[in-house]
Amino acid sequence: MPEGKKIEIKPAKGRPMLTWVGKRPLSYVTAFPAQHVETFSPSPLGGEGGGEGAIWKDWPSSYPKGGLLFHGDNKEVLAHLLANGFRGKVNLIYIDPPFDSGADYVRKVSLRGPKGTAKLDGETYTLGEQIQYTDIWANDNYLQFMYQRLMLLKELLAEDGSLWLHCDWHKSHHLRFLLDEIFGAENFRNEIVWAYPGREMHIENKFNAKHDTLLFIAKSDSTKINMKDVAIAYDRAERLKGLRRKVSKDEDGREWVWETRGQAAGQQPYKRYVDDILKEGRALNDVWDDLQFLRGNDPVRTGFPTQKPDSIIERILLACSDPDDIVLDCFIGSGTAAAVAQKLGRRWIGCDINKGAVQTTAKRLQAVIQEQIEAERNSPLTLPLTHENPPQSPFSKGGSSNDSENNIPPLAKGGEGGFEPAQTSFTVWRVNDYDLAIQHNEAVNLACEHIGVERTRTDAYFDGTLGKALVKIIPFGHPLTPLDLEELKRELEARPDEERPITLVCLGMELAAALWVEDWNKLRKGRDAVNKISVIELRTDPKYGKFMKHEPAKAKVKISRKKDKIAVEIEDFISPTIIERLTQQAGILKPKIDDWRAMVDCVMIDTAYDGKVFNVVLSDVPEKKTDLVNGSYELPTPSKETTVAVKIIDMLGEEVLFVKAV
After folding, report:
1. Interior/surface letters 600-631, b for 16+ CB within 10 angstroms, e for the rest
2. In this structure, are residues 83 and 75 in contact, taking their beta carbons and an 8 Å threshold?
3. Model confidence, pTM
4. Looking at the predicted structure, is the pLDDT value of residue 204 above 90?
5. What distance in Å separates the CA atoms of residue 418 and residue 416, rounded to the nearest whole number?
6. Which end of the chain has the lower number of beta carbons within 10 A, N or C?
7. What strands, in cross-sheet order, belong to the sheet with 618-620?
8. In the prediction, which pLDDT does 118 show?
9. Lowest-pLDDT range, 236-250, 367-381, 533-547?
């Protein structure tokens, strides 16, 4: 794909239209290429991880047939998808975007092992909290952020598709206006209230909030909805009581009642079996009060702060998509939408700007796919599931982890319940090089502390102030480029009354960016110059350069051949960032971690690494937070010389790659 290709976006013509300061209609977006960085394809089923058949005829040839997980700003990822063949092909979109809640969302990070702590002179310490994303906005910036992304999502949505937006009381009213403007008020289907049980609290000046909102939007009149697939199973005794009719029995013991069609006089009653009535289930309304909120000790919890229960996504997918459809979530978070789509036989695409979210999702999908493959190996011989041999009712077996008590339809595992996986592989891609050694939010915090920036919690673009200057920290995954500066220019054009100088903080700067800044400042001479730009390069700045003394994590790995096997032995691992965190809590005491595996979240191995794409041949992701990685592995090897790569990810998301030819 050509660098910087412009993708046209149709204007929003719906009514009513919401207005805010700096509202900019999105007429086009710039599409960047994507770099393929990782493949997970353990399936023995052949093809590209089982991605075969007629369902893939509409799949763009530039991508392998399987799940797609992107790391990058979702605005850029959505533009990339539009430029690469996905326009009008996504059947269902579920998003759980920031709510403008005014909070930093953090995950609690601990070491692996039974205690999850490190001992320092008899005291125990954990890694504390790591910011996953900041949900603090100036109102206008939040609206512009969502406006642009909703316009892009509309372009990707198929004519029979639907969009589900998960929100709460903070911005549901504003988001409804945006959806009416972009999709047209005639396509708004439902405002669904998810009322969940929770902690009872007495609040002095308002009532306790105990519900979220789901806004259900159709692309057109042809949007699909399968109400019978999401009817709630009846409790037998409750339903029999509700019939309020005499229940009779056949000689074989089957219960039945007299039914009549319609209300007109003279309708002839007919015999109907109770079992058939019960199978229909109870029709859903727009208040969902039967789905539990995730409990703190729920085994499906990933540690991601805003994780939603599987049962919500499951109900949405069963209602508004079919097996093999494409499901998209561009705020993937903990990966729930992709995991449920995988379990229910749908194809999926996910993305997130937070590297920790991408890592969490990748680990979760690896576990789901491995379960499906294992279930396929162990299942008795049966007819293959096809459209001619349809699956069983999703109500026939099991239940998801926290929903069986509520008669929630079960999640299919490994084809159980009737859903054959649409794919048993996925690939990870990076758009516009957002790869960071440490997570961006953590890097921003460290940089602000180091430089002395006062953080601004109400501005979605600028990170804070330094003296009188507004400060913007450029993502550390790439040097400052003219594209970053053009984005700054557009932001300032949307704030015509903003006169303060600007300080940009980056690791380095391209020559073209330096010339851009020079030309910009030539037009802004004198003491009263408006929006003059200065740049702090952390790699070279004489005052702030010490920031780059960050010491990366290191591993000691032994890789050797043993006849027809490759032996991988991780002998040691150290994460200076983890040690530094623990030291900050303990003062002058030095942390003591008895087992290096306590610092490691997961290990992945590629036995034929080409230096570009990491193909996951072995994935060691401990099932429980208290479990440790193995650290010692044996894998089949080709007879010729090969390059083995071992990727180790620590508990803070920092990655170490060890490569050796054997």
Report:
1. bbbbbbbbebeeeebbbbbbbbbeebeebbeb
2. no
3. 0.69
4. no
5. 5
6. N
7. 618-620, 600-606, 643-650, 655-661
8. 53
9. 236-250
